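Subject: for your reference before the review

Hello V.,

The reviewers asked for a structural picture of the protein, and I figured it would be easier to keep everything in one thread rather than splitting it across files. Below is the amino acid sequence we used in the manuscript, unchanged from the supplementary table.
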Amino acid sequence: MSKTPAQRRKFLGAAGAVGAGTMAFPMVSKAQTTSLRFQSTWPAKDIFHEYANDFAKKVNDMAGSRLKIEVLPAGAVVPAFQLLEAVNKGTLDGGHGVVAYHYGKQSALALWGSGPAFGMDPNMVLAWHYYGGGKALLDEIYKSINMDVVSYLYGPMPTQPFGWFKKPIAKADDIKGLKFRTVGLAVDMYTAMGAAVNPLPGGEIVPALDRGLIDGAEFNNASSDRVLGFPDVAKNCMLQSFHQSGEQFEILFNKGKYDALPAELRSIIDYAVQAASADMSWKAIDRNSKDYEELKKMGIKFYKTPDAILRAQLDAWDKIMATKGGENPLFKKVLDSQKVFAQRAKSWQNDYMVDFNMAYNRYFGRGAKS
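And here is what came back from the structure prediction:
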């Protein structure tokens, strides 16, 4: 039956009201900004704090005015190594750091950064985490220590140097009695090699090295090491190491705050993590290589860590895996999972990836055509 003009006007008026309502709802939603206060575990001047801000900007840009993450530097609310507890308690809504910083609460947590990871590079460790069972294991570990947080891992770090020293480290015996800074299970590894280890936060390393409280230290990369002031207090840097060769960053959320977010904002966070991971990788290559060249211009001497020391690291690591794996079922569970993934993924990578050094050496090595 056809509608009369009056009926049609009434229907269109109702439809318009519904349409206006559905259009107005997102506008109302956008006006309701959720603000989250984050803290990083890095000084404000460090490139790592910049990475934390990069992630927050991606979330803020995509969420419009609906979600705003503010990132504070290390120490603004709590000390760097207390980030996990602060996020768990709600003192902070979230944070940016590394899983290895929580090593003291459960040693298995250090396996997301410390040690050789059965030969996996940092990007492959992330592949294991997201597709090989690592994420479920990390959630299980956090639950076991009563940490009610949501964790995202991202940002594969380049291999970290052995460290900065007053004089080069030529052999494994040189490590014995050395006062050294590192974190995570690298503490156990260097202790087993004879060093006296002090796991200082990032901002305290260079002052301790300057005052002679430690003889050597590692932090992470050319950009961070340069801005933290390492070249001011030491002139020798030993490159390549297995102490932290597969590490990545962690973005933490208080679970209650995270769960209260609408599904679309949680999706924005998911995709911002992935975008930030790729962007960080590209930025690291550009910035680390530039700062490496600048450090060399400043007179810093770089040395490849001798293979004998690298093998000694692996020897120490084998003992740590056996001891910790025997004491801690979760530690063994993580190791077993990593080992299965590494055997398959590294076999594929080794067979498929070309030796890029062949091409590099052709154009830039000795005897290269000008």
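For the response letter, the relevant points are probably these. Residues 8-29 have pLDDT under 50 and may be disordered. The longest strand covers residues 149-156.

Happy to draft the paragraph if you're swamped.

O.
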